[in-house]
Amino acid sequence: MTAIDPSTPILLFDSGVGGLSVLAALRLVLPEAPVIYAADNAGLPYGGKSEAEIAARVAGLLGRMTERLRPRLVCIACNTASTIALAAVREVLEVPIVGTVPAIKPAAALTVTGTIGLLGTEATIRQAYVDRLEAEFAGGKRLIRFAAPALVAAAEAKLRGGPVDPAAFAGAVAGLRGAPGGGAVDTVVLACTHFPLLLPELAEAFGAELGSVRFVDGAEGIARRIAHLTQGQPMQRERGDAALFTAGGADVDALSPALARYGLESQSVF
Ligand code: DGL
Protein backbone atom coordinates (compact mmCIF):
# COMPACT_ATOMS: atom_id res chain seq x y z
CA MET A 1 0.00 0.00 0.00
CA THR A 2 1.37 3.43 -0.94
CA ALA A 3 1.75 5.94 1.88
CA ILE A 4 -1.08 8.43 2.09
CA ASP A 5 -0.25 12.11 1.53
CA PRO A 6 -1.07 14.03 4.74
CA SER A 7 -3.03 16.67 2.79
CA THR A 8 -5.38 14.10 1.22
CA PRO A 9 -8.87 15.36 2.12
CA ILE A 10 -11.89 13.79 3.73
CA LEU A 11 -14.90 14.57 1.53
CA LEU A 12 -18.08 15.47 3.42
CA PHE A 13 -21.17 15.49 1.23
CA ASP A 14 -24.70 16.82 1.76
CA SER A 15 -27.43 18.45 -0.29
CA GLY A 16 -26.81 21.74 1.51
CA VAL A 17 -25.45 23.07 4.79
CA GLY A 18 -26.66 20.15 6.91
CA GLY A 19 -23.35 18.34 6.79
CA LEU A 20 -21.82 21.21 8.73
CA SER A 21 -23.31 19.63 11.87
CA VAL A 22 -21.20 16.56 11.09
CA LEU A 23 -18.16 18.69 10.26
CA ALA A 24 -18.39 20.35 13.69
CA ALA A 25 -18.25 16.94 15.37
CA LEU A 26 -15.42 15.83 13.10
CA ARG A 27 -13.33 18.89 13.98
CA LEU A 28 -13.49 17.88 17.64
CA VAL A 29 -12.04 14.42 17.08
CA LEU A 30 -9.77 15.13 14.10
CA PRO A 31 -8.77 18.80 14.25
CA GLU A 32 -5.93 18.30 11.75
CA ALA A 33 -8.02 16.55 9.10
CA PRO A 34 -8.07 18.32 5.72
CA VAL A 35 -11.69 18.53 4.63
CA ILE A 36 -13.54 19.34 1.44
CA TYR A 37 -17.18 20.10 2.11
CA ALA A 38 -19.41 19.46 -0.90
CA ALA A 39 -23.03 20.61 -1.10
CA ASP A 40 -25.31 19.61 -3.95
CA ASN A 41 -27.33 22.79 -3.60
CA ALA A 42 -28.47 22.50 -7.23
CA GLY A 43 -30.38 19.40 -6.05
CA LEU A 44 -31.57 20.77 -2.69
CA PRO A 45 -33.87 19.67 -1.14
CA TYR A 46 -33.39 15.93 -1.54
CA GLY A 47 -36.29 15.19 0.78
CA GLY A 48 -38.95 15.81 -1.88
CA LYS A 49 -37.27 13.71 -4.56
CA SER A 50 -37.86 10.08 -5.51
CA GLU A 51 -35.62 7.24 -4.41
CA ALA A 52 -34.46 6.66 -8.01
CA GLU A 53 -33.57 10.29 -8.53
CA ILE A 54 -31.63 10.56 -5.26
CA ALA A 55 -29.71 7.31 -5.82
CA ALA A 56 -28.72 8.22 -9.38
CA ARG A 57 -27.82 11.78 -8.51
CA VAL A 58 -25.75 10.99 -5.42
CA ALA A 59 -23.92 8.03 -6.97
CA GLY A 60 -23.12 10.04 -10.12
CA LEU A 61 -21.96 13.13 -8.28
CA LEU A 62 -19.86 11.27 -5.74
CA GLY A 63 -18.30 9.25 -8.55
CA ARG A 64 -17.21 12.44 -10.34
CA MET A 65 -16.14 14.18 -7.15
CA THR A 66 -14.07 11.23 -5.98
CA GLU A 67 -12.35 10.98 -9.34
CA ARG A 68 -11.44 14.65 -9.32
CA LEU A 69 -10.72 15.23 -5.63
CA ARG A 70 -9.18 11.87 -4.68
CA PRO A 71 -10.37 11.88 -1.05
CA ARG A 72 -9.11 9.36 1.51
CA LEU A 73 -12.68 8.80 2.70
CA VAL A 74 -16.16 9.95 1.72
CA CYS A 75 -18.77 10.78 4.34
CA ILE A 76 -22.35 11.10 3.15
CA ALA A 77 -23.39 13.62 5.80
CA CYS A 78 -27.04 13.40 4.83
CA ASN A 79 -29.65 10.98 6.16
CA THR A 80 -31.77 11.14 3.03
CA ALA A 81 -28.90 10.27 0.69
CA SER A 82 -27.51 7.63 3.06
CA THR A 83 -30.72 5.77 3.78
CA ILE A 84 -31.46 5.61 0.04
CA ALA A 85 -28.16 5.57 -1.83
CA LEU A 86 -25.47 4.10 0.40
CA ALA A 87 -25.49 0.72 -1.35
CA ALA A 88 -25.44 2.30 -4.83
CA VAL A 89 -22.57 4.59 -3.86
CA ARG A 90 -20.60 1.71 -2.37
CA GLU A 91 -20.87 -0.03 -5.72
CA VAL A 92 -19.30 2.83 -7.66
CA LEU A 93 -16.63 4.04 -5.22
CA GLU A 94 -13.53 2.31 -4.01
CA VAL A 95 -12.72 4.66 -1.12
CA PRO A 96 -14.12 3.98 2.36
CA ILE A 97 -17.60 5.47 2.77
CA VAL A 98 -19.28 6.50 6.00
CA GLY A 99 -23.01 7.07 5.92
CA THR A 100 -25.43 8.76 8.26
CA VAL A 101 -27.88 6.60 10.14
CA PRO A 102 -30.89 7.98 12.06
CA ALA A 103 -29.90 7.75 15.75
CA ILE A 104 -32.75 5.41 16.76
CA LYS A 105 -30.48 3.11 18.75
CA PRO A 106 -29.18 5.79 21.18
CA ALA A 107 -32.67 7.29 21.41
CA ALA A 108 -34.11 3.91 22.41
CA ALA A 109 -31.51 3.67 25.16
CA LEU A 110 -32.36 7.15 26.45
CA THR A 111 -36.15 7.24 26.41
CA VAL A 112 -37.86 6.83 29.76
CA THR A 113 -41.45 7.01 28.53
CA GLY A 114 -40.76 4.59 25.66
CA THR A 115 -42.04 7.10 23.11
CA ILE A 116 -39.53 8.47 20.61
CA GLY A 117 -40.11 11.18 18.02
CA LEU A 118 -38.20 11.22 14.75
CA LEU A 119 -37.88 14.28 12.56
CA GLY A 120 -36.52 13.79 9.05
CA THR A 121 -37.24 14.56 5.44
CA GLU A 122 -40.24 13.12 3.60
CA ALA A 123 -37.93 10.68 1.79
CA THR A 124 -36.07 9.54 4.91
CA ILE A 125 -39.07 8.77 7.09
CA ARG A 126 -40.56 6.36 4.52
CA GLN A 127 -37.39 4.28 4.09
CA ALA A 128 -37.25 0.56 4.81
CA TYR A 129 -33.86 1.34 6.34
CA VAL A 130 -35.69 3.25 9.10
CA ASP A 131 -38.18 0.38 9.49
CA ARG A 132 -35.24 -1.97 10.04
CA LEU A 133 -33.62 0.32 12.62
CA GLU A 134 -36.94 0.60 14.42
CA ALA A 135 -37.45 -3.19 14.46
CA GLU A 136 -33.89 -3.85 15.58
CA PHE A 137 -33.44 -1.18 18.25
CA ALA A 138 -36.84 0.19 19.22
CA GLY A 139 -38.90 -2.98 19.56
CA GLY A 140 -41.54 -2.50 22.25
CA LYS A 141 -41.22 1.28 22.00
CA ARG A 142 -43.36 3.72 20.07
CA LEU A 143 -41.59 5.61 17.26
CA ILE A 144 -43.48 8.59 15.87
CA ARG A 145 -42.08 9.83 12.54
CA PHE A 146 -42.74 13.29 11.16
CA ALA A 147 -41.48 14.84 7.94
CA ALA A 148 -40.28 18.39 8.52
CA PRO A 149 -38.99 19.82 5.22
CA ALA A 150 -39.63 23.34 6.53
CA LEU A 151 -36.77 22.79 8.99
CA VAL A 152 -34.37 22.17 6.09
CA ALA A 153 -35.29 25.56 4.63
CA ALA A 154 -35.04 27.13 8.10
CA ALA A 155 -31.50 25.81 8.61
CA GLU A 156 -30.42 27.07 5.21
CA ALA A 157 -31.93 30.50 5.96
CA LYS A 158 -30.33 30.64 9.41
CA LEU A 159 -26.86 29.96 8.02
CA ARG A 160 -27.36 32.61 5.35
CA GLY A 161 -27.96 35.01 8.24
CA GLY A 162 -31.56 35.55 7.15
CA PRO A 163 -34.84 35.39 9.04
CA VAL A 164 -36.12 31.98 10.09
CA ASP A 165 -39.83 31.21 9.95
CA PRO A 166 -41.01 30.26 13.49
CA ALA A 167 -43.85 28.26 11.92
CA ALA A 168 -41.29 25.60 10.98
CA PHE A 169 -40.63 24.83 14.66
CA ALA A 170 -44.24 25.01 15.71
CA GLY A 171 -45.06 22.61 12.86
CA ALA A 172 -42.48 20.08 14.07
CA VAL A 173 -43.82 20.23 17.63
CA ALA A 174 -47.41 19.85 16.44
CA GLY A 175 -46.45 16.97 14.12
CA LEU A 176 -44.99 14.91 16.97
CA ARG A 177 -47.09 16.01 19.91
CA GLY A 178 -50.30 15.85 17.89
CA ALA A 179 -49.77 12.24 16.79
CA PRO A 180 -51.49 9.46 18.79
CA GLY A 181 -49.45 9.02 21.98
CA GLY A 182 -47.27 12.00 21.01
CA GLY A 183 -47.70 13.70 24.37
CA ALA A 184 -45.29 11.12 25.82
CA VAL A 185 -42.39 11.89 23.44
CA ASP A 186 -39.34 12.50 25.64
CA THR A 187 -36.59 11.87 23.07
CA VAL A 188 -36.43 13.29 19.56
CA VAL A 189 -34.16 11.85 16.87
CA LEU A 190 -32.89 14.56 14.56
CA ALA A 191 -32.73 12.33 11.48
CA CYS A 192 -31.63 15.05 9.08
CA THR A 193 -28.21 16.64 9.36
CA HIS A 194 -29.72 20.10 8.91
CA PHE A 195 -31.69 19.87 12.15
CA PRO A 196 -28.88 19.99 14.78
CA LEU A 197 -28.05 23.40 13.30
CA LEU A 198 -31.38 24.51 14.79
CA LEU A 199 -30.93 23.01 18.24
CA PRO A 200 -31.58 26.20 20.26
CA GLU A 201 -34.75 26.96 18.28
CA LEU A 202 -35.98 23.36 18.50
CA ALA A 203 -35.24 23.18 22.22
CA GLU A 204 -37.26 26.33 22.80
CA ALA A 205 -40.16 25.13 20.67
CA PHE A 206 -40.31 21.74 22.43
CA GLY A 207 -39.84 23.28 25.86
CA ALA A 208 -36.65 21.27 26.28
CA GLU A 209 -35.30 23.74 28.79
CA LEU A 210 -37.99 22.40 31.09
CA GLY A 211 -36.45 18.98 30.68
CA SER A 212 -39.36 17.51 28.75
CA VAL A 213 -37.40 16.31 25.70
CA ARG A 214 -33.90 15.37 24.69
CA PHE A 215 -32.53 15.50 21.17
CA VAL A 216 -30.17 12.95 19.66
CA ASP A 217 -28.37 12.93 16.35
CA GLY A 218 -25.68 10.85 14.71
CA ALA A 219 -22.89 13.41 14.28
CA GLU A 220 -20.63 12.24 17.10
CA GLY A 221 -20.93 8.61 16.09
CA ILE A 222 -20.07 9.46 12.49
CA ALA A 223 -17.03 11.47 13.59
CA ARG A 224 -15.83 8.55 15.72
CA ARG A 225 -16.32 6.15 12.81
CA ILE A 226 -14.28 8.40 10.49
CA ALA A 227 -11.54 8.64 13.13
CA HIS A 228 -11.53 4.86 13.43
CA LEU A 229 -11.30 4.27 9.67
CA THR A 230 -8.46 6.79 9.26
CA GLN A 231 -6.56 5.73 12.38
CA GLY A 232 -2.79 5.95 11.93
CA GLN A 233 -3.04 8.02 8.74
CA PRO A 234 -0.98 11.24 8.61
CA MET A 235 -3.13 14.38 8.38
CA GLN A 236 -2.04 17.90 7.74
CA ARG A 237 -3.86 20.77 6.14
CA GLU A 238 -1.81 22.50 3.44
CA ARG A 239 -4.27 25.33 3.00
CA GLY A 240 -7.60 26.35 4.47
CA ASP A 241 -10.43 23.88 3.92
CA ALA A 242 -12.74 24.46 0.98
CA ALA A 243 -16.45 24.23 0.23
CA LEU A 244 -17.81 23.15 -3.15
CA PHE A 245 -21.31 23.83 -4.42
CA THR A 246 -23.05 22.41 -7.47
CA ALA A 247 -24.62 25.84 -8.14
CA GLY A 248 -23.26 29.30 -7.44
CA GLY A 249 -25.17 32.52 -6.78
CA ALA A 250 -26.23 34.99 -4.13
CA ASP A 251 -27.47 32.29 -1.73
CA VAL A 252 -24.04 30.69 -1.69
CA ASP A 253 -22.28 34.06 -1.30
CA ALA A 254 -24.49 34.74 1.73
CA LEU A 255 -23.20 31.55 3.37
CA SER A 256 -19.57 32.75 3.43
CA PRO A 257 -19.50 33.98 7.06
CA ALA A 258 -21.13 30.77 8.31
CA LEU A 259 -18.76 28.60 6.26
CA ALA A 260 -15.79 30.53 7.66
CA ARG A 261 -17.01 29.76 11.20
CA TYR A 262 -16.68 26.07 10.30
CA GLY A 263 -13.16 26.63 8.96
CA LEU A 264 -14.20 26.56 5.29
CA GLU A 265 -12.20 29.45 3.93
CA SER A 266 -12.94 29.27 0.23
CA GLN A 267 -15.88 28.27 -1.88
CA SER A 268 -16.23 27.35 -5.52
CA VAL A 269 -18.59 25.68 -7.95
CA PHE A 270 -18.01 22.04 -8.81
N1 DGL B 1 -29.45 17.13 5.12
C1 DGL B 1 -30.28 16.17 4.50
C2 DGL B 1 -30.56 14.99 5.43
O1 DGL B 1 -29.81 14.73 6.34
C3 DGL B 1 -31.55 16.52 3.83
C4 DGL B 1 -31.94 17.85 3.35
C5 DGL B 1 -32.68 17.79 2.04
O2 DGL B 1 -33.91 17.59 2.00
O3 DGL B 1 -31.99 17.94 1.03
O4 DGL B 1 -31.51 14.27 5.24
Short key terms for the protein model shown above:
Rossmann fold, alpha/beta, single chain, globular, 2 domains, six-stranded parallel β-sheet, four-stranded parallel β-sheet, 270 residues, binds D-glutamic acid
Describe this structure in words.
- This protein is of the alpha/beta class.
- It is 43% helix and 17% strand.
- The strands form 2 sheets. The chain has a 6-stranded parallel beta sheet, sandwiched between helices. A 4-stranded parallel beta sheet has the order 6-5-7-8, sandwiched between helices.
- Helix 1 crosses helix 10, helix 2 crosses helix 3 and helix 7 packs antiparallel against helix 8.
- The longest helix is centred in the first third of the chain and has 19 residues.
- The two termini are 30 Å apart.
- The model has no long low-confidence stretch (mean pLDDT 96).
- D-glutamic acid binds next to helix 3.
Q: Note the beta-strand portion.
A: 15-25%
Number of domains: 2
Bound molecules: D-glutamic acid
Helix content: 40-55%
Largest sheet: 6 strands, parallel
Strand numbers in spatial order across the main sheet: 4-3-1-2-9-10
CATH topology of the largest domain: Rossmann fold
Give the distance, in angstroms, between the N- and C-terminal Cα atoms. 30 Å
Mean pLDDT: 96
**Helix vs. strand class:** alpha/beta
- Number of continuous helical runs: 12
CATH architecture of the largest domain: 3-Layer(aba) Sandwich
Shape: globular
Oligomer: single chain
Series of H and E elements: EHEHEHEHEHHEHHEHEHEHHE
